[in-house]
Amino acid sequence: MLRAAGVGAGDEVVVPAFGNVEVADAVTEAGATVVFADIDPATYCLDPQAVEAVITPRTAALVVIHRFGRTADMARLRGLGQRHALLLLEQGESEAPYDEIAQRRERAAYLDGRLNGVRTPAGGDGHTYQQYVVRVPGNGRPDRDAFARAVRARGVECRVPVKTPVHRLPGFRRDVQLPETERAADETLSLPVDGTLTKREMQRIVSACNALGGLLQPAF
Q1: What burial letters (b/e) apply to 101-138, b meaning 16+ CB within 10 Å?
Q2: pLDDT value at position 142?
Q3: Where among 60, 75, 91 does a domain terminate?
Q4: What is the predicted pLDDT for the residue at 215?
Q5: CA nearest 62: which of 165, 29, 54, 174?
Q6: What pLDDT is attached to residue 126?
Q7: Quick one: which of 4, 110, 169, 191 has the most CB atoms within 10 Å?
Q8: CA-to-CA distance for 211 and 181, rounded, in angstroms?
């Protein structure tokens, strides 16, 4: 799509660094330069203010990634695109049937009301909970990783959604300030929220997380 729109050598394309290395790869393959912008801490999508801060006369396009069932602030991002004459591309997530989304929301509401020691995700209209992503506060990644190991030891599957931001990967390393991206990579953990989970399984998730008291120090 970038090539078809004439984006290539000499152009810059703004993308998020929180996940989706394939997007940065596509920009490079088109011959353009990748420019990273920070994310909104609630949605994990591009922050319009951060995007505006990195736009230059060479900026030709903006690639928006919708994350974990939340959507980016498309009204503001479209406005930026119009003001700066940018190509705006979106990458969403696979759509699920309405009944499946309703089941996820029901289980997310259950977790929202019972979890402590972690920060539950911001809800908001339209959240489909493709992933139920919590924050493990504290001193960053050591706390989150220790928490994840302890939760798994209690029989609850969990995963780190983004282990390394794209701007820290070989080939894309940039000396840029992306504090919300870095913080999200260090603190986020995805807990089960699938519609097939039973009440007992949901109780196990809550029990495992709450038993840890929130913060864990790494073993040395």
Answers
A1: bebbbebbebbeeebebbbbbeeeeebbbbbbbbbbbb
A2: 82
A3: 91
A4: 53
A5: 54
A6: 85
A7: 191
A8: 28
Instruction: Determine contact, residues 12/58, Cβ cutoff 8 Å.
Output: yes
Residue with tokens 């920009």: 27
pLDDT in the model for residue 123: 78
* Cβ pair 17, 166 in contact under 8 A: yes
41-52 as b/e: b if 16+ CB within 10 A: bebbbbbbebbb
Write down the pLDDT at residue 118: 92
Asked if 56 and 9 count as a contact pair (C-beta separation under 8 A), the reply is: no
What is the extent of the structural domain holding 154? 98-210
For residue 145, being part of any structural domain is answered with: yes
In a domain, 5, yes or no: no
Is the domain of 80 the same as that of 146?
no
Looking at the DSSP bridge assignments, the partners of residue 12 are 33, 59
Helical segments of 30-178, H only: 48-54, 74-83, 98-114, 141-153
pLDDT of residue 117: 82
Distance of CA 88 to the CA centre of its chain: 19
The H or E element that residue 187 is part of is: helix 179-187
Nearest partner of 108 among 82, 131, 90, judged by Cα: 131
Name the packing angle between helices 199-210 and 141-153 (round to 10°): 130
Task: Tell me the sheet residues that pair with 16.
Answer: 37
Please list, in sequence order, all residues whose beta carbon lies within 8 angstroms of the beta carbon of residue 98, skipping any fewer than 6 positions away: none
Q: Which residues of the chain have pLDDT under 50?
A: 216-220
